[in-house]
Specification:
This protein is 46% helix and 0% strand. It has helices spanning 17-21, 23-35, 39-42, 52-67, 76-79, 98-107, 126-138.
């Protein structure tokens, strides 16, 4: 049964506290964006037709995403004390990703100049690599 509020919900096209504070809603809207489905369909309601509320949520999410720095993942407002942010909102930490370390090490072996142009370094599962090596030995 759908729960009704006695007062109307704030318009979803204004990125407000709910979208900013509700990580679950953002995750749901991210999935909806990826699969290009309305939020109501994701929640198992409706027939897949985009409702006005679905469109407003999608537009609010798109606006929210535009505010997020692609490099660090924060929003300017989170740092701006004049709008309730805090200049100490985050701390920088270090984290080593072994996959990235292996990619960087392998990238060093790619030759400079013409011989290295277009060469891409990628990670593949060890089992796939073994199968490719086996197939290569069988071809000779």
């Amino acid at each position: 049964m759908e729960r009704r509020l006695d007062h109307p919900a704030p318009p979803a096209d204004r990125p407000g506290k709910r979208l900013i504070d509700d990580q679950k809603l953002r995750a749901e809207l991210e999935v909806c964006e990826r699969y290009r489905i309305p939020h109501s369909q994701f929640r198992g309601q409706g027939d897949g037709t985009w409702t006005d509320l679905d469109r407003r949520k999608a537009l609010a999410y798109a606006d929210y995403v535009r505010q997020v720095c692609a490099h660090c993942g924060t929003r300017t407002a989170e740092w701006d004390e004049s709008v309730g942010g805090d200049e100490d909102a985050y701390r920088a930490i270090t984290h080593r990703c072994v996959g990235c370390q292996i990619l960087a090490d392998k990238q060093k072996t790619v030759p400079d100049g013409d011989d290295g142009f277009g060469v891409k370094v990628a990670l593949i599962p060890t089992s796939v690599h073994a199968a490719l090596e086996f197939a290569r030995t069988q071809d000779h």
